[in-house]
Amino acid sequence: MTTKISPQMLTPATLQMVRNHNRIINGDMAIDQRQAGASVIVPAGSVFPVDRFRAGMSGANGTGQRVACTVPGFPYMLRVTGAGGTTAAWIGQYIESVNCTSLVAQRVTVSYYAAASTITSLSVVLKHATVVDNFTATTTIETVAKAITSTMALYTVTFTAVMPAGAANGLYLEFVSGTNLAATTLSITGVQLEAGTFASPFEFRQRGQEFALCQRYYYKATARPLGVTLNVADGYSSLVHLPVSMRTTPTLDSGASYSVGAGSAGTPSITGGNPEAVRMSNAASNWSVNTTISVTAGYTAELA
């Protein structure tokens, strides 16, 4: 028997359960503004191999890269590869406080696809920030170790802990290699964190929506025209209008560069702005006057 769903049954509470339930952004690793699929060195600190997901290693630097995935429905996965001296590796995402406040006093469930070439255990760790949207100091809520194999498989963790008041400061979901990673691989995709004690199917958002969610935290401009130079340091039209309102006024990521029609390219600098637009200038103050300018840069408003 088929039950017809009437519009009256689609209450706001019901709609919230069936859409926008995943608090993780880019859980299917589809957006990769920073690296565009290229491999990146994963250090002892952290780096972003794909949008919103940071990775780090201890003992020795390895690599991280978005690669093809064979799980149906998931074209991509994030893979980290250790080196001979790598003692541990981790992959995680900071979740902004505004997306966590409704989880307080609830239990949450994490689901993900993962595989490892050698290690047999992967710990799923949930922490909360001590200060709102500041992850310099965190408190561990719960850690769950899960067995893992070399074949990509779906795993589910329902934390026994009820989310404390501190969860409203922002959550940090982290996957940590349970044993010495060494020169082996760890792969993951389909990451989802949701309220409740069961795992629902992965929430595939429309690509444009997922892209915009990522751009709240990072935007990559490539050869973005800025008009012509007004003087040695400023341009006539040097505002970069950001495609979405970012989490905060962004800063420049490393590797920003100018291209000019003539003379020295100079050094990119942000001299003012807000989460919607920033004003660019030349920190080296050595442009030729009345030449064209374009900028290639990453603008970051990531949580830290």
Short description:
The protein has helices at residues 12-18, 207-215, and strands spanning 40-42, 47-50, 53-58, 62-68, 76-81, 88-95, 108-116, 121-131, 134-147, 153-158, 171-177, 185-195, 218-228, 239-241, 251-252, 257-260, 268-274, 277-282, 292-300.
Largest sheet: 6 strands, antiparallel
**Strand order, sheet with most strands:** 1-4-5-12-7-10
Morphology? globular
Q: What amount of the residues lies in strands? A: 35-45%
State the helicity in percent bands.
Answer: under 10%
Individual helix count? 2
What is the string of SSEs from the N terminus onward? HEEEEEEEEEEEEHEEEEEEE
How does the helix and strand content classify structurally? mainly beta
- Average pLDDT rating: 93
Question: In terms of quaternary structure, what is this?
Answer: single chain
pLDDT < 50 stretches? 1-7, 12-17
Query: Could you give the count of β-strands?
Result: 19
What is the CA-CA span between the terminal residues? 52 Å
The value of Rg in angstroms is 22 Å
If you had to describe this structure to a student in words, what would you say it looks like?
It is a single chain. This protein is mostly beta strands and 304 residues long. It contains two helices and 19 strands. The strands form four sheets. The protein has a six-stranded antiparallel sheet, with no helix packed on it. A six-stranded antiparallel sheet has the order 2-3-6-11-8-9, with no helix packed on it. Strands 13, 15, 16 and 19 form a four-stranded antiparallel sheet that branches. Strand 17 and strand 18 (277-282) form a beta hairpin. The longest helix is centred in the last third of the chain and has 9 residues, at 207-215.
